[in-house]
Amino acid sequence: xxxxxxxxILFLAVTLLFLAANGVFERKKDDSRAILRxxxxxxxxxxxxxxxxxxxxxxxxxIRAGNYLVKLTRPGYYPVWKTVSLKPGEKAELNATLExxxxxxxxxxxxxxxxxxxxxxxxxxxPFTLKNLPHGKYSALVKLAG
Length: 146
What we know:
Structural class: mainly beta
Strand content: over 45%
Distance between the termini: 124 Å
């Protein structure tokens, strides 16, 4: 009987040590963090979070639960700001579409009525406003007889 008791106690002790070494008895820490994934179209936008650039889209991080303002920027596109509220343990995804920056050009001459050729195409006469031009290089010729 002593032999069986000793082996039983030894077996229980070894089992308890094994379980303890593998974290079975550890208390789970209160993880108040959330997982945030940020995507953009087009990809490659800079992600600013907590007033600091964190990386480029697609971007993911583990962050403390709370309310955040996320800024996405990319050259040639208007910046986008998004807010996100994260709960502890939540997996959230933030998606944004960036719009290309555009410009407008006002053609004005003294005297008015000059012909406007823009990228080798006759647009009209001055005064004339050309709207929503994407970034790029263009050529213009403004002509008036005399």
